[in-house]
């Protein structure tokens, strides 16, 4: 069964030109991959905002969190012999891997049910620690035991890890705790305990072993163990190169429904879903044979990283899902779909790997 995906008529919802930078000598290059949540009767998005120093001809620049907690800018001449590679995203200089942008989080609110959003510049979440010195990316938000937990990718000199911050009021936030070490990302919390323990989907990355989805357990939301690979990439399929969790799994009568991203060998990102057992989420009951959503619109095909859709935020209202996603790593968009159609589209069979 084909899933009916209704893209919002006003897509893209937010573009770089809609946002002010965090400081006057920076410019916003991308707004993407928002987490989503409800608070105070409104829908909020936790936007990933990527910005860079205003370009200076003849120089490459990288923003980095300094030891004093301020963001400093390193500029390197383009003809510097220490530069071994360079792209729009990064460059290598004297053995250091440096990014051309730094990401932070900005809250945007909707008063019309999640169709239009207004940035709230009083609520920026900035990198604070050395593990975030290159930026914080791709937030996932889940309310667990009355508290909002924000899991995200923390990027620093020691690698790419999973950080967590907490809030109850969306004004004050805890400091970052690293809950998973490098190299790891795409961490999505389950909304409740299962068998007395919290559960987390995550995606370790290893050039030798691939990019697969794992499940972890915790007694306290801080110490995570019993890591098990539950879903792997599939050779020759739309998700053959890498996969990663989206937002929190949705509990249904059939099991936990998890929307995930997959990329093929060309780097094209599309969306599919997994169905996990309600009592034993390490067991995959069903998996998308084909994507339920793939890049089609111009804003999904063309941009900073074209042919890409990536979701880590959703609002569930009964059978309806408001899906928020980054398109072409450039803009924020929305779509509406139905849980019943997603479930009906799944290919039944155990496509995961469960270890003892």
TrEMBL record:
Top-level taxonomic group: Bacteria
Keyword Transferase: yes
Pfam families hit by this protein: Glyco_hydro_130 (PF04041)
InterPro entries tied to this protein: Glyco_hydro_beta-prop_sf (IPR023296), Mannoside_phosphorylase (IPR007184)
Gene3D superfamilies: Glycosyl hydrolase domain, family 43
Keywords: Glycosidase, Glycosyltransferase, Hydrolase, Transferase
Keyword Cytoplasm attached: no
One annotated GO molecular function: glycosyltransferase activity
Similarity comment: Belongs to the glycosyl hydrolase 130 family.
Annotated PANTHER family: GLYCOSIDASE
Annotated protein name in UniProt: Glycosidase
